[in-house]
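Incident review: delayed structure delivery

Summary: a single-chain prediction request sat in the queue longer than the usual turnaround. Root cause was a stuck worker, restarted by the on-call engineer. No data loss occurred. The affected request and its eventual output are reproduced below so the record is complete for anyone auditing the incident later.

Affected input:
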Amino acid sequence: MKKALKLIGTYFIFLILSIVFGTFLYMIFHNALNFVAGNKIIVFQLKVFIPTFFYITLGTCFFICPFIAIYRVRHLHGILQTGAYILICLITWAVIFPSVSFIEKKIQKFYQNEKQELMLSKNYFRETDDKIYFITKDFSSVLNDDGRIENETTSVIMDKSENGIVTYEKISDFDKNSPKMKAKPFNEIGIKKALNFEKIFSLLGIGVLVESAKKSLEGGVWTYLQFLSLAFLLCSLYGISHFFDWRILNTYAIFVTTICIIFANITYYMPVFEPFRIKINNFGFLEMLGRHVEEPLLFTANIFFGIIFIVTGCIKFILHKVKKQKA
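Output delivered after worker restart:
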């Protein structure tokens, strides 16, 4: 019983630490995202902190159960521990995620704000792939021929090629070759190069699953239960926490499998795969299941592999007991 309670205590400690550090790091990233040279940096903003806190809390739910399964690799303590793990999974997906989503929805109106478009400041050099820009004055709004308001300024532009020239011309924030557009989704091109945003945004892809889960909650209990096929699969990784004799292999197996599961579920919702989803979901058994489940292919795959992991864990447990009795 003591070991089972320790597992639950470890769960809450990791949950709190993940939320605290995750929120802190995400707010730093938000500052980098909106930074403009010459502007004052505001480290803490309540209107940024609140949505960040909810995003990180909901995102942590996807990783905390696999983490506890990894923790169990080095702390194996019988059937009561397994019961404690099941309770942890129920707390995560039946209590924490729905409750946090509900609270977020209730207070969302207090922190909703449109992103303020910041213009690049003057008197700073900004280097793109082939040119160097030096903006000489502040941006000003102008109405173009299409009736669209654009922000324009003048800049010294230095071509970086061997026989490059220096020009002085107008630039617009809608120009695809401007330092503003080249820096997207950041404001400053230098920040984008320093942080390697492609890798960062791949980590933020968990937001796709968070939004999908929140949407399923809004659809009612049955819709949310369908989404929980993913939660079932993630929680079932506990079944392979003692699959190998070497602990490092068990840890590696859970870690890699978790990443693969998250990646597969995120990829499933990408627009490029929509024709494939429609075609497969209208085939045979999946078509029949689709009358009751919104995403029959994803639902079936998650449940199938989840059962495989659980059965694997049960077989391994039985074999371990038989081997122990013979010894």
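Verification: The longest strand covers residues 149-159.
Action items: add queue-age alerting; document worker restart procedure.
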